[in-house]
Write a structure and sequence with these properties.
555 residues; 20 helices; six-stranded mixed sheet; 22 strands
Length: 555
């Protein structure tokens, strides 16, 4: 049975900005379909067209059939019950105050009996390990926990189709894998059709039936991951950069035979190529020499949002000046709370925080934010309230008392740095999630901070812009700035950050140079490390694995 059939579908937002072009596509019942593409390629727009209640306003040409029915014959009640949708913006989906009521909300609207609804809530809470937060306020949860609640509230309605827009973007690696395991189970064991868009494909390619790739609104690839070849990846830089590390290595080395489609196949290929256990011996990963002075010193810090329990409990952390520093940890570990404390938005109950060798409490009113500290929050939408991106950026400079004749020049320079020139005249909510993330980055960079705090900055960013983003952050560090980033993106942190710290149970349990950090971890590590475990020692990034493989091929 065909769940969705798109015939020559094109879509343009008001103002004639075309985002989808002549899409022909069928999605069958029970399929696991992965949709990928650059930020702004039209992924979210395509997904929203498959959920009638969320269809964007604009000009639609062509036709869409839902479960064999034309769109006009497919009722809103059918759409509500059959098609579940988990949004990219975690804050936009919740409609109640508490987790339990959120899980009940959709069931009540479907007129599910009270006893049946209670059973479904119990089952779903157990499935997603939400028992401990059922009676918590949603506002008290971390971004990743909110995403799990959003997914659980949709799954409780037992839809026939589950549409997921970047559901793991704010989940730590372990939670992300567990969530995808549940989604795969829903597809394989309960015949639920799954359509998911993601930028991180390491755990998705091996379970996908079909891969769809959008480029500038056009469907440029529609096929099984196993049908990908060296030629296809070598001719499409975005697709190559987006694929799992074992596929990228196969294509980069032009290895013969079938493209590996799972980690175990990739490991066997690497093992056969190298033939023996080798050690990667390079120790210096970055050229810049960091200062021995500290930009941030956190000593024995305790913090709680209420009198019940502490989020941070004796946390210690030291961040050298000029470093690109990453903070990792599970959802709810206290990472975002730490950034709130460093930015002065919250005050610790006990302990001491120094920013540039000065107690944070001793900064005069407003002094901390004048060219000292700037925070890019996890909810970057909070930075935008104006009708255009340009006007929002201009408001930042007005607050900084920047002369009017300098504003446009600084905005244009920063926009070029963040690659958002094309969006300056757009409404902030008319751009994609990844594009809005870059606009938010521009807003905080306009403040010219010496300490830049970033909460999940790479969420929504495609693989190609991540590389550009890393280069920009390292350029800022070379100019004397310090960047502290909270992230779940282990591949990014291993490749580009100087040091990484792991927070668990409100404390720092590990803080090392990034290479040593990931090389010593078993679960909380990179895909390249997992790929080469037992074959290569001390190699944690794709570039390191490729270097050794190329040396072996030249022997």
């Amino acid at each position: 049975m065909v769940d969705f059939k798109l015939n020559n579908v094109s879509f343009a937002f008001p103002g004639e900005r075309t985002v989808l072009k002549s899409i022909d596509l069928e999605i069958n019942s029970g399929e696991f379909v992965v949709l990928c593409g650059k930020s702004g390629s039209g992924k979210t727009t395509l997904l929203r067209l498959l959920k009638p209640q969320l269809s964007p306003v604009g000009k639609l040409t062509g036709s869409i059939e839902f479960f064999g029915k034309k769109s006009d014959d497919f009722s809103k009640i059918e759409a509500a019950g059959k098609i579940g949708f988990v949004m990219q913006n975690v804050e936009a989906q919740a409609v109640t105050y508490k987790v339990r009521s959120e899980l009940l909300f959709g069931l009540e609207n479907l007129a599910v009996s009270r006893s049946e609804a209670q059973l479904r809530v119990a089952e779903t809470a157990s499935l997603f390990s939400l028992e401990d937060v059922l009676d918590c306020r949603i506002s008290e949860l971390s971004g990743g926990q909110k995403q799990l609640v959003n997914l659980a509230s949709v799954v409780a309605m037992r839809p026939e189709v589950l549409i997921l827009d970047e559901p793991t973007a704010q989940l730590d690696p372990v939670s992300a894998r567990k969530m995808l395991d549940v989604v795969q189970m829903l597809c394989r064991e309960y015949s639920m059709t799954v359509i998911i868009t993601e930028h991180r494909l390491e755990n998705l390619v091996e379970i996908a039936d079909r891969l769809l790739v959008l480029e500038n609104g056009e469907l440029v690839y529609n096929g099984a991951p196993s049908e990908l070849s060296n030629e296809i990846l070598q001719n499409n830089s975005f697709l190559r950069a987006s694929m799992p590390v074992y596929m990228r290595i196969h294509a980069a080395l032009s290895l013969p035979g079938k493209m590996p489609t799972c980690l175990s196949e990739g490991r066997r290929e690497i093992s056969a190529l190298l033939g023996e256990r080798l050690r990667y011996t390079q120790t210096e990963k970055h050229e810049n020499v960091r200062s021995k002075e500290l930009a941030v010193r956190v000593k024995d810090v305790f913090f709680s949002y209420d009198a019940k329990s502490y989020v941070l409990r004796g946390l210690d952390l030291s961040v050298p000046k000029g470093s690109f520093f990453a903070v990792l940890g599970a959802n709810g570990a206290g990472k975002s709370t730490l950034l709130e404390l460093l930015s002065g938005l919250s005050e610790c109950r006990m302990g001491k925080i120094e920013v540039f060798s000065k107690n944070i409490r001793k900064y005069a009113k407003g002094e901390l934010y004048r060219n000292n500290v700037a925070l890019l929050p996890q909810k970057c939408e909070a930075l935008f309230a104006g009708p255009t991106v340009f006007e929002d950026l201009e408001s930042v400079l007005k607050a900084e008392s920047c002369p009017k004749n300098e504003r446009e020049k600084r905005i244009r320079e920063t926009a070029a740095f963040c690659e958002i020139e094309a969006f300056l005249s757009s409404h902030p909510y008319d751009v994609s999630g990844g594009e809005l993330q870059r606009c938010a980055l521009a807003a905080v960079l306009l403040k010219k901070p010496r300490l830049l705090l970033l909460d999940e900055p790479t969420k929504g960013m495609d693989a190609e812009f991540k590389k550009s983003f890393a280069e920009k952050m390292r350029e800022l560090c070379s100019r004397g700035a310090t960047v502290v980033m909270v992230s779940h993106d282990t591949e990014f942190c291993a490749e580009y950050c100087d040091e990484c710290a792991l927070i668990f149970d409100g404390r720092t349990v590990l803080c090392k140079e990034s290479k040593s950090f990931f090389d010593g971890n078993f679960y909380y590590t990179t895909a390249a490390s997992r790929l080469t475990r037992g074959v290569l020692k001390n190699a944690v990034t794709e570039s390191e694995v490729l270097e050794l493989c190329r040396k072996k091929l030249l022997c």
